[in-house]
Amino acid sequence: MTTAANEPVIVEVAVESATGAAAAAAGGAQRLELCQALDLGGLTPSPGLVAVVKAAVPLPVFVMIRPRPGDFLYDDGEFAAMRRDVEALRRAGADGFVTGVLRADGEVHAPRLTELVAAAGGAPVTFHRAIDVAAAPERALESLVTAGVARVLTSGQANTAAAGVVAIRRLVLAAAGRLVVMAGAGVRDGNVRELVAATGVREVHLSAAVRVPSAMVFRRDGVVMGATALPDEFSRRQTDADLVARVVAAVRGA
């Protein structure tokens, strides 16, 4: 699992559509994280979306397993759905999975995580930024290693990876090559080289999204489909190939 310091930095891009996947690929991303509802932090996509994205791009597609927004303490029904989603999305072509489960005390829910890794059937599992709200991230890391997790995505318990560099570096040292530590949250071309140098990570994660206006001509204002705190109904996230390309160019040779 050890990653040599002279190996190229891998850029993973979170997307929520085939269009976004194609833009990320055009920008030079090496791997995709496929979600729905990135405005909510990313939720489980449908098997149909997984199949369409797999047909659209040649990149590895890691699929989010998260049944709802909010915390990572799941009841029995939610966890049963997560386990079945892993099985169904593996059949749909997922190359890997992204998930996280915690107990009420902030520790990793090790038995459930082990179940999800087993359900993945050998496909690599990434533990997502649930580690950033865990009670003791370095202790959580040991649970991930024991469960057979391949990598962990972290911002270093901060809102952005740039603000969490010290904690990310601690995780890299604690991992000691037993799993990959990937830095994410607020990664941009202007900070990614410094982030890689300060932490020692060889993988970075970003959504590379901009908001674009809806193509709708007729618009009925004042009617919303969800919480009013979310962006309006007449704009949407769109992966920006140029932003991806700038990050890829910035880490080249880092």
Describe the structure.
This protein is an alpha/beta fold and 254 residues long. The protein has eight helices and ten strands. The strands form two sheets. The chain has an eight-stranded parallel β-barrel with strand order 1-2-3-4-5-6-7-8, surrounded by six helices. A two-stranded antiparallel ribbon has the order 9-10. Helix 4 links the parallel strand 4 and strand 5. Helix 1 runs parallel beside helix 2. The radius of gyration is 18 Å and the shape is globular. The chain starts with 9 loop residues before the first strand and ends with a helix.
How many helical elements? Answer: 8
Report on the biggest sheet. Answer: 8 strands, parallel, barrel
- Principal-axis shape equals globular
Distance between the termini: 20 Å
Strand order of the largest sheet: 1-2-3-4-5-6-7-8
Q: Into which percentage range does the β-strand content fall?
A: 15-25%
Can you give the mean pLDDT?
93
Assembly type of the chains comes to single chain
Low-confidence stretches: none
Supply the helix-strand structural class.
alpha/beta
How many DSSP-defined strands?
10
Helix-residue proportion: 25-40%
Roughly how many Å is the radius of gyration? 18 Å
Order of helices and strands: EHEHEHEHEHEHEHEEEH
